[in-house]
Amino acid sequence: MAVSVAQRLSAAGTANALELRGVTRMFGALAALTDVSLTVRPGERRAVLGSNGAGKTTLFNCITGDFLPTLGTIRLFGEDVTEFPAYERIRRGLRRTYQISLLFTGLSVLDNIYLACRGVSRGRFSLIRPRRNEALMHSAEQLATAVHLIDVRDTKVAELSYGQQRQLEIALALAGAPRFILFDEPAAGLSPTERRELIEILTNLPAHIGYIIIEHDMDVALRVSESVTMMHNGRIFKEGRPSEIESDPEVQELYLGGGHG
Length: 261
Ligand SMILES: Nc1ncnc2c1ncn2[C@@H]1O[C@H](COP(=O)(O)OP(=O)(O)O)[C@@H](O)[C@H]1O
Ligand SMILES: [Mg+2]
Fold this sequence. Notes:
The structure is a single chain. By secondary structure, this protein is an alpha/beta fold. The protein has two domains: 15-93 and 178-261, Rossmann fold (3-Layer(aba) Sandwich), CATH 3.40.50; 103-175, no CATH class. It is built from ten helices and ten strands. The radius of gyration is 19 Å and the shape is globular. The model has no long low-confidence stretch (mean pLDDT 89). Magnesium ion binds next to helix 2.
C-alpha cells in the first residue's frame, strides 16, 4: 500500500510543535481558560493578543506544566505531555520567559548564560568538574552574541539597562537547544529603541525555533509573528495572519475600545 505524504512526514517526526485540544483551566469557580484548542507547527511564530485577564499567562502555565489543565490535552512535538511535570517538558525542548525577572544580578552577563547552559546540559550535578567547560563557554558566548550582549559580556547584570536585562532573559531561554519558546510580554517597559532591538533579536532566531509571544504592543506582535491568536475572556476569539487580524473590525473594536491595558 502506498504511503501518503502525510504519513511520511509524520514518520519523519514533523508532528506539530504544539497541539492543545479543549483546554480548560478553572480557579475555583472562575474559568481562566475555556475550551482552548490551538495548533502551532514546528518553527512557527505565533503572537497571542488579548486584554488583561484574557487568560494568556494561564495558557502559558498550562503549556509549561506550571499548572495542569482542568480539562483537555496538550501535545508537544506529537507527544501527550498533559500530565508531565515542567522539567520533562523542558527536556523535550520547551522554554519560557516570565513577566518578572529571574536573573542573578550580582553575576556577569556571561556567567548567567553559562549557568543556564550548564543547568540544561548533562552532568550538571557532578562535583568533580569544578573547571569551566570550554564547549559550554563557547555556547554561552554564541548566545550573548545572538541577543546583542557580547559587548557587555563581563558586565554585572545589576549594571545593565532594563532592556539589556530582558535580552539576557531571552539568552537564558535559548540555552540548551530549545525547539519551542514561550515569551511572556518581552517588550513590556522597553523604550522604542529597545523594542526595535527586541524585534531584530526575535526575527533572527534560528528558523527551526518556534515560539508564542504574548504581546500588548500590536506593532511588535505583528512584526515578529506569522500567525496571531486573539484571546478574550479565556477563549480564543480569532485566529489569522497578522494582516488579517490587524484589519479585522471586531479585533479593532475589542483591542482599541476599552478594557485593554
Ligand atoms: N493562580 C491564580 N489563581 C486564581 N486566579 C488566577 C490565577 N492566575 C490567573 N488567575 C485568573 O485567571 C484569569 C486569567 O489570568 P491571566 O492568565 O493572568 O490573564 P492574562 O495573562 O491574559 O492577563 C484572570 O481572571 C486571573 O485573575
Ligand atoms: Mg499575563
